[in-house]
Amino acid sequence: MASATAVTVPCAGDSSASSPATAAQTAEPTATPTAEQAAAATAVPTAEASGFARFGFPPEILQALAEIGYREPSPIQQAAIPELLLGRDLVGQAQTGTGKTAAFALPMLAGLDPEQRSPQVLVLAPTRELALQVADAFNSYAARLSRVRTVAVYGGADFRDQIHQLKRGAQIVVGTPGRVMDHMRQGTLDLSGLRALVLDEADEMLRMGFIDDVEWVLEQLPEQRQVVLFSATMPAEIRRISQQYLSSPAEITIRTKAADAGRIRQRYLTVPAPHKLAALERVLESEGGEGVIIFARTKAITLTVAESLEAHGYDVAVLNGDVPQAQRERTIERLKSGQVDILVATDVAARGLDVDRIGLVINYDIPFDGEAYVHRIGRTGRAGRSGEAILFLTPRERRFLGGLERAAGKPIEPMEVPGNATINQHRLDRLRQRLTGALQQSGCSEEERALLSEILQRVAREQDCSPEQLALAALELSLAGKPLLLQGNDDFTTVRANGPGRDRDRDGQGRDRGGRPLRRGGREERPQGPPEADMERFRVELGWRDRVKPGNLVGAIANETGLDGRSIGRIQIFDTHSTVDLPRGMPEEVFTSLRELRVLSKPLQISRLRNTDR
């Protein structure tokens, strides 16, 4: 295999545009191009054209980009698009939010044959949320290409409806590995005319147990095809796949700057799982600013958190994989304009989120990945402003703190759950600020102010009271019947934290990084204790006799529920069934969808396990 062309491009982190010359100069291939490549490169205007026009895209694509608001390509786009237009295989290492979807989607669209109604481009994504996001992006870029169709196929959706869409014809298919395999085996997805395969977020597919499925798909494809692999990190398994299935690929690395540690104050607090919601409300009382993002691990948890905060009078919006794209855009606009101050989101749904007014990021659930942590806290401290980031840890999660500190490049300071005195002082300060703001800038018209003044004078005459008494009555009225000061016991905020070295598994058995028992002699040992405090144990009717592996269960459940693969707890496989630990608090509709889930073409038949020993 010929050596790959390696390109390293610095990047500010998100999909904001950079100088057009930067990537053009940095991304110049070091290998001597072939005559065919040279001819293709000559056809791409570079001298006078600006923005995306320099790549020689058809007018329909350029018009769609202009309508979306794309003006200058991001670094990953500047480096990758020319290589992909030449038909080369490509390995791109780039974080989410760098604009990589457009980097592969635009050249793929430019090379389509609209007369060919069978799939020409297949994109594999680890989750249905990302598959829908990528499909929406393709539709946006192809808005002016009337004969180009994109179909998304993923688990948890009606299989027959997807068959109908595929039969109608589509040049682009975006899907999760398991559902793509199902369609290929059923003969409803014909990839004989495929020209390109894109593996998006390959490391996430590895983590979710999809790599065997990805390799199966790769082995079924036509011999002559273009393969594009994007991954935030390059573990050994992903590197092996790139070397085995890609031919002389161009290699592009976009170096993203970590969140500016000097502008973001990072703190953590330790609180038992049952007290997290109460602690969150106290943190928002004492730390909440004009814009807050709360990151939760699952869609179910986003809803639980949002409902609790709404019950306490907060204006909250939710962003998870169930939120349609149009509603997502309206939610972000409301956050930007100040109509909503608190957003509760999952990682997948918050990809690419860029709102300058975010002053506080709360990691309600710990991300078990340093890069995910850096990406989350990078939502604050924008545009030269300072920001705050607070991480919630249960005592058992303290062992992950060191890894997050290494990823962030600085220590994360400990803090206490705010007590009554801190919250009460914050309430008084906030009331004073509101009163000062009302004096400096009135929200009433002159006519309304005159009417209010008349009311004050009339009440003062009738009640024979002083201006100070009137002002006090008005302030009490503004409290709307709610107490100004927080009363009661706050002893629960004093949490005894275990040191990282003392947080051992209760049963003393060795476990892998995902918290699962290590395998001994080919079978996993029987767990000796109940699930962790924030987990619940379930039984599924698939076992060793069904040839099921932990990766099959992790991938299927994560794709159906939106869970991060690492948030799925202990998995133990027996001869005729298996047990899986999942986060507590799953809504009934999520549990219902899991009951209907199929793994390896067999029903999962999940049920809650009452006897926690098995």
Notes on the structure:
With 614 residues, this protein is α/β, with parallel strands linked by helices. The chain has 3 domains: 252 residues, Rossmann fold, CATH 3.40.50; 158 residues, P-loop containing nucleotide triphosphate hydrolases (Rossmann fold); 105 residues, 2-Layer Sandwich (Alpha-Beta Plaits), CATH 3.30.70. Helix content is 38%, strand content 16%. It is built from 21 helices and 23 strands. Strands 1-8-2-7-6-3-5-4 form an 8-stranded parallel β-sheet, with helices on both faces. Helix 7 links the parallel strand 4 and strand 5. Helix 5 crosses helix 6 and helix 15 crosses helix 16. The longest helix has 21 residues. The protein is globular. The two termini are 50 Å apart. The relative contact order is 0.09. About 12% of the residues have low confidence.
Name of the CATH class of the largest domain:
Alpha Beta
Kindly state the percentage of residues in helix: 25-40%
Overall tally of structural domains: 3
Number of strands: 23
Radius of gyration: 27 Å
Task: Specify the CATH architecture of the largest domain.
Answer: 3-Layer(aba) Sandwich
What is the global morphology? Answer: globular
Instruction: Tell me the structural class.
Output: alpha/beta
CATH topology of the largest domain: Rossmann fold
Tell me about the largest β-sheet: 8 strands, parallel
**Side-by-side strand order of the widest sheet:** 1-8-2-7-6-3-5-4
Q: What percent strand?
A: 15-25%
Low-confidence parts, pLDDT < 50 over ≥5 residues?
A: 12-48, 492-528
What is the end-to-end distance? 50 Å
Q: What is the overall pLDDT average?
A: 78
- Supply the CATH superfamily name of the largest domain: P-loop containing nucleotide triphosphate hydrolases
- SS element count, helices: 21
